[in-house]
Amino acid sequence: MAQQNPQVLIIIGSASDKPVMKATEELLAEFGIPFETYIASAHRTPAKVMKLATEAEGRGVKTIIAAAGLAAHLPGVIAAHTTLPIIGVPLEASGLGGLDALLSIVQMPPGIPVACVAVGKPGAKNAAVLAAQMVGLTDASVAEKVKAHRASMAEAVEKANK
Ligand code: RP5
Fold first, then answer.
1. Distances (CA, A) of 151 to 32, 100, 132
2. Phi, psi (5° rounding) for residue 115?
3. Residue 129 in contact with residue 143, Cβ under 8 Å?
4. Atom 9 of ligand 1 has which residue's CA nearest to it?
5. Residue 23: helix, strand or coil by DSSP?
6. What values do phi and psi take at 87, rounded to 5?
7. Could you give the 3-state DSSP secondary structure of residue 132?
8. Long-range own/partner contacts, residues 43-46 (CB < 8 A, 24 or more apart)
9. How far, in Å, from the CA of 13 to the mean position of ligand 1?
C-alpha cells in the first residue's frame, strides 16, 4: 500500500511474510496512519534495505516496523542505518517456532536498540499498536484512536462475559 507521506514504514524480509503482516497493515489503517509496505531482505537485497532506512527520516517517517523469520537481521540492520525507533517482529519460518528470529531481533548490542514484539500474529498486531502510540505522541487524533481501540477490547471482554 503506497501513500504520499508515510508516517510508518513496514519492511518485510520476504513475500512469504505478507500473510502474517497483513494484521499490522489492517491496524495501522484502522488508526488512520499513512504507511507503506516494502519487501526488502537484509541478506538478499541489503542495498535496498540501507536505502529505505537512510531515507526514512527525511521522508517524515516516525518509526519503522521490520518483520523477518529465521536469522532475522532485518530490524537490526535497519536500526544500524537510522536513529528512528525500530520495531522488530519475529516470524515463524522454521521448525524452531520463531525462537530463532526472536533471539536474532531481541539480542541487539548496547546502543542500537530494536523494540521487539511477540512472535507471529500477536507481535504483528502489537507492532501496529506500538507504532500508533509513537505517532500519537504528536498526533492527537491517532492518540484518540489508540484509546478507543483499547476501550473496544475491554468492551469485547465484558461482552464475552455475558
Ligand atoms: C526471512 O526468511 C524472511 O523474512 C522469511 O521469514 C524467511 C523465509 O523467506 P523465503 O525463503 O520464504 O523468501 O528472510
1. 17, 34, 15
2. -80, 105
3. no
4. 14
5. helix
6. -110, 120
7. helix
8. 43/71, 43/73, 46/77
9. 6
| Residue recorded with cell 527525511 | 58
Q: Which atom of ligand 1 is nearest to the CA of 12?
A: 4
Residue whose CA lies nearest to ligand 1 atom number 2: 69
- The verdict on pTM exceeding 0.70 is yes
Q: What is the pLDDT of residues 1-23, one digit of tens each?
A: 444 699 999 999 999 999 999 99
Quick one: cell of 107?
539480542
In whole angstroms, give the CA distance from residue 30 to residue 86.
21
Look up residue 9 and give its DSSP letter: E
- Whole-angstrom distance, CA of residue 131 vs CA of residue 95: 29
Q: Amino acid identity, residue 4?
A: Q
CA quadruple 21, 94, 43, 10: dihedral, nearest 10: 10
Centre of ligand 1 to C-alpha 77, Å, is 16
Kindly list the protein residues whose Cβ atom lies closer than 6 A to any atom of ligand 1.
13-14, 16-17, 41, 68-70, 91, 93
Quote the longest CA-to-CA distance of the chain: 54
pLDDT at 4: 60
